[in-house]
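User: Predict the structure for this protein chain, please.
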Amino acid sequence: MDITGCCGMDCSSCEARLATLRNDMEALSKIAAAEENRSGHSFILPSRMRCTGCMEPGAKSISCAECRIRICAEERSIPHCGFCEEFPCDLGDIIWEAIPEYKKNIERIRSR
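Assistant: Here is the predicted structure, written as structure tokens:
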């Protein structure tokens, strides 16, 4: 993992980030349509899916921009939950239950 998201996501392999780097609007359109189906939001513009990585400078996808974990990490001035004294906390439990790999990524980083 070159870029670890606040929650432990591997941002370097994120399809939205890769499409953003390629400026691939067709891929971003497909990602936006999938997000509409997943989240129940009505029409999401492909440009709202642009993302450079949750703690990297630049655009944030709609889900990353509103992510409470990312906002918490920014407020604490840490790159991800692995640097937090309160890890694991209730804030991350929802995503870590849904995607246990993210929590394992954070635990792996913390053990180094």
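The chain has a mean pLDDT of 91.
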